[in-house]
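Troubleshooting entry. The earlier prediction with nickel (II) ion gave an output that would not parse, so I re-checked the input for stray whitespace and re-submitted. Clean input:
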Amino acid sequence: MDFAQRAAQLSEAIISHRHWLHQHAELSLQEHETTAYLAGQLRELGIPVQTFEDYPGCIATIQGGKPGKTVMLRADIDALPIQENSGVDFQSQNPGVMHACGHDCHASMLLGAAQMLWESREELNGTVKLLFQSGEEVFIGSHYYWDQGHLSDVDAAMGLHVWATAPSGSLCVQDGPLMASCDNFKITVHGVSCHGSTPNIGKDAIVAASAIIMALQTVVSRISDPRDMLVVTVGKIQAGTQFNIITDTAVLEGTVRAHGPEARQLAADNIRRIVETTAAAMGCTADLEYNFLEPPVRNDDIALNEIARGAARKLFGPEVLATTTPATGSEDFSYLMEKIPSSLFVFLGCYDEETDSVHPVHNEKFKINEDILQVGAAHYAQFAADYLAKNAGGAQ
Ligand code: NI
């Protein structure tokens, strides 16, 4: 099948799916209407789809006409707690909830790809699974489908995200790091409370917490290799009740982002050291809860990346391929990337001044030029077909 041509024919349908999903934006792990819509559309096409009683999202399975491997395509489906201010005429009907990360685009493109792969199933050398995934924005949404065993037969996988640092309609299929790991920490500083006028008889948890925050800045500036991407952010501080009380408790929360496992571990080790020793230097103690949440997104399977680049070139010519700076944001597809033998993540550029699509994801004004949806849908489908064709020999 000529997926570029078929995707162009389906463009209007893909856009109308996107409008429906955009208008019915739902928060992470609550995408029940969204799931019902997606499953309904898939079933209407005749595609077998599995839904879950205890969890949103669904998995469609397209069995090819010839034997072979199993490839998975993934789209996330959740929205964000943001009041939309994008000016589009299909604005979210759920107040305070907006598809500001483009997951409505991903789901509608994957619906388009599902239709094309279903129509061409007799030609496929294996099986395509299409995962419409809940709860990406809360970091843990992808776990369920793997942990429940629904993806254990998957040999290779591709995820995709619309991305505002790349030109509209371009495809970034890059080797190496693409998005960061996400680990969070919570520090509780314990001191001794007393009257604000007699600091000498207390142990001020606020002063100790302040020293910890400042010392944590040296993890990136003085401890980490400057060539390694690393972010350490304290994003929340809670302490004290009144101006004239020296408090005995301060709680800090923060996040760490890295592109490589070494920088990730280095941050964890040094944050622990700094928290404990700095609290002690101030006569306090501190507890550290450190949660390794999501690994980085890395496209380290170069042969698979080549299949995806080849698919892009075949569809739209070499000029469709672009590169962009690896992001410091995170993506819970990385959990599946760690489990599935072979995987990659692709950015679909969406920066377009002509349609004022210039706002980053997670912004209340985020929007896209919808002409790019057919590009993503075609690429999803072509990648799956090409992967299966290329690996047909070894799968009998
Ligand atoms: Ni996103």
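This one parsed fine. Residues 101, 103, 136, 161, 361 surround nickel (II) ion (CB under 6 Å).
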